[in-house]
Structures are given as C-alpha cells and as structure tokens.
C-alpha cells in the first residue's frame, strides 16, 4: 500500500427498471418499455468500463485490485431479459480486463450475487433474498487476497434457492440438485442478516 494511492476500486453502478420484474411477463424484449433500456444499458455496461478506464492507471501503480459487480443473471440465461444481457456483458468485461490487467500487476474480480434484499427488486424480493452485507463480505473477501493471488470470479446465492434445470423451456427442479460453483469460481457461504 502506497500513501495516497488507490489500492482498490469497485464498479457497482447499475440497475433495472420495474418492467424487468413483472410477474407473468414473457420477457422484457417482448413487452418492456424500450425508452427505459438505454439508461440501464449505459449504467450496467458503460459504467463499469468507464470506472476501469479511470482507475486502472492508479491500480497499476499500487498493484491494486478492481472489483466489478455482475449478477447471477450474467451467468445464467434469463429468457428475453435485457438486464441479464447487460450482466453477461459485465462478466465478459471482467475477463477481458483481467487478461489486460494481470500483466500490469492488477487483480480483477467479478462478484456475481444472486437475489439481494434491496430496492433493486422494486419490492418483489422473496424472503430468502440475501442481505446486502453478504455481498459486501464477498467483495471484502476478493479484496483481501494475498499479493500475487488473483481471485477472478465469486458467485454467491441465497441458501434455499434450488438449481433449476431447463428442458424444452420448462423449469424442472431436480430433487438432488445442489448449487455447485462453476469451474474456476469460488462459492462463499452467505448469511441472511
């Protein structure tokens, strides 16, 4: 750590509009409001890119870390959902930045939280949703890695959210399905405080 240096940056801009959470909706692309899409895409995709552009030169000097907030929606398809597509972009951006930054001594992590009990869900968060503190703990875990270690992907989900297997557009719940981290990811226990 250098005095007056930027040792870590967190790109946590983003959001979605209420039309992404309408029950029974066929998908936002079918019946969403296109006037709401541009601000969401700009915040969710351009926001992290601009944060990276502004912070990478400083993080290179300090050999610091950049954390981008993705979403489980960015690693699991959500039919017709534009928010999900923006979070896929964040996951891709994180890997592209990692490839660029690792040779410069910068660690890059994407944290992909599942459902969180915040205003983001527009009052529709289920009782199993995680506390925002759980996401903060995951970010802290990413930032706390020892020098020389680059933790790339952290995916956290609330306990009680079953894995859903898709077959022909039908959602199936397998009785023995367990949430397992994807290859190359870390799974952290979370609390619902």
TrEMBL record:
Residues 170-193 are annotated as: Disordered. It comes from the Bacteria. The keyword tRNA-binding does not apply. GO terms for molecular function: oxidoreductase activity. Keywords: NADP, Oxidoreductase. Coiled coil: none annotated. SUPFAM superfamilies: NAD(P)-binding Rossmann-fold domains (SSF51735). Residues 184-193 have a biased composition (Polar residues). Belongs to the short-chain dehydrogenases/reductases (SDR) family. PANTHER family: DEHYDROGENASE_REDUCTASE SDR FAMILY PROTEIN 7-LIKE (PTHR43391:SF14), RETINOL DEHYDROGENASE-RELATED (PTHR43391). This is Oxidoreductase. It comes from Embleya hyalina.
